[in-house]
Amino acid sequence: MKAMLFAAGLGTRLKPFTDHHPKALAEVNGKTLLEHSLRYLQRYGIEDVIVNVHHFADQIEQVLQDNNGFGSWVSISDEREMVLETGGGLLKAAPYFEDEEDFVVMNVDVLTNLDLGKMIDFHKSNESFATLAVMKRESGRYLLFDEHMILCGWTNNKTGEQKISREVLEMRPFAFSGIQVLSHKILDMPFTGKFSLVDLYLHFAKTELVKGYDHTGNIFIDVGKPESLEQAGYLFE
Question: What is the C-alpha to C-alpha distance for residues 143 and 211, in angstroms, rounded to an integer?
Answer without folding.
Answer: 11
